[in-house]
Write a structure and sequence with these properties.
With about 180 residues, the protein is α+β, with helices and mostly antiparallel strands. It folds into two domains: about 10-105, TATA-Binding Protein (2-Layer Sandwich); about 120-180, Electron transport complex subunit B, putative Fe-S cluster (3-methyladenine DNA Glycosylase II, Chain A, domain 3). The chain has helices at about 40-45, 85-105, 120-125, 140-150, 165-180; strands spanning about 10-15, 25-30, 50, 55-60, 65-70, 70-75. It has a six-stranded antiparallel sheet with strand order 1-2-6-5-4-3, with helices on one face. Strand 5 and strand 6 (about 70-75) form a beta hairpin.
């Protein structure tokens, strides 16, 4: 088996961006350099920030944030990390994912640039702008921001399904689809 991540340790750490907030995450220290897998992960993930020169890959998924460096993985918003079994399981999942992508890399075209989401304003311009809150957001602008970051789905806005908004919906589908490929 051709594993990239063979040995690692992890610990619970306070969120560096909000010291004293009581928010914690996980820091995984890896003995081997994992940066060779970054372009392959970047090719498979949506909305990433990837700096090939500095060997940093950042993305959000399932309300968690991931930051990978050559010998380190940080996971923020890791629910249940106070339970050692859940923390270990979460670390095991990301390690397994990295190793699986590494093993399958011959079938993946690497991508050396991040994939930026469409701008909030580009999305907002195409929304109904009625602030009905049916999507679960307080305003259409908040919904546009959440949509841009992948925190919500286009289907959450039921107003876009109405006949008078179908053209705007089609344009949204187009810009959101282009951003993820």
């Amino acid at each position: 088996m051709n594993e990239l991540v063979k040995e690692y340790t992890f610990k619970v750490v306070e969120a560096g961006c909000a010291p004293g907030s009581g928010r914690y995450g996980l820091q995984v220290n890896i003995s081997d350099d994992i940066s060779p897998v970054f372009p392959y992960l970047n090719a498979l993930l949506e909305y990433t920030r990837y700096d090939h020169q500095s060997s940093i890959l950042i993305w959000r998924e399932n309300d968690r944030g991931y930051a990978l460096r050559a010998h380190e993985i940080k996971i923020v918003r890791a629910e249940g990390i106070d339970d050692p079994t859940q923390a270990s399981g979460l670390v095991g999942e990301i390690v397994e994912r990295i190793n699986n992508v590494w093993q399958d890399r011959t079938h993946i075209t690497p991508r050396f640039a991040g994939k930026a989401p469409p701008s909030v304003m580009d999305i907002f311009k195409l929304l109904p702008k009625i602030n009905c809150k049916r999507c679960g957001c307080s305003t259409c602008l908040v919904y546009a921001a959440d949509l841009s970051e992948g925190k919500t789905k286009l289907e959450s806005c039921s107003v876009l399904l109405e006949p008078e908004h179908i053209e705007k919906r089609q344009k949204l589908v187009s810009i959101l689809t282009c951003a993820s490929h």
